[in-house]
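Aggregate trends can hide what the representation actually does to any particular protein. This step matters because it turns folding into a mapping between discrete strings. For completeness, the protein is quoted in full, as a sequence line and a line of structure tokens:
=====
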Amino acid sequence: MKKLVLLLSVIALLIIATGAVSAAKPAPDTFTITGYTVNDPFTDPETVVLPNGHTRYHILAQGGGEDAEDNAFCAFLWTQVAEPGTPAISTCDQLCTIGTGQPNQVCGVSGALNGRFTFEEWVDVNPANGKAKNEGVVTIIGAAPARRAVVEFKGEVDQAALTVSGKFKVDKKQGAGAYNDLKGQGDYTGGAAYVFTVTFTGKLKD
């Protein structure tokens, strides 16, 4: 009986210790970009058919810090992607809210990093099997002057579901301001439509 009590006590201590370790483990850093495509990938001059028969699409996007010209573009973009009879919009924040289906969702970067962003991406599509891979760079400009982080990413595109997923890393050499020494890596997942939200989850540190 004493051996049984001792064994149960050891098990209980192990459970408590495991719980303490789990509780002490730091939560991953997360930041999200929400924005919209600003070029037509199908007619962009950098979209090309490669020697292997794949098509390499060039995509530009942005979000946050919009001015009157940006808002006019977003209003026009909505007329191109919205269902007929859908009410008009006048700002990019409205586009990001309606386009993502998230209430009060504004364009830009939120979470562990914040501010506005520009986005350049290349999507390689294999017409033989429909598989697509993506890679690119997100440049984040923080609310404070001269704050910049450059995030490189590479992964896959599910064309049927209009989603992306893959790995990212922060290019420490291109950081500036408060993000000068920022580094990190992790995973990303999100949407691949003209209006999109992509979430990056991993570990960031100065």
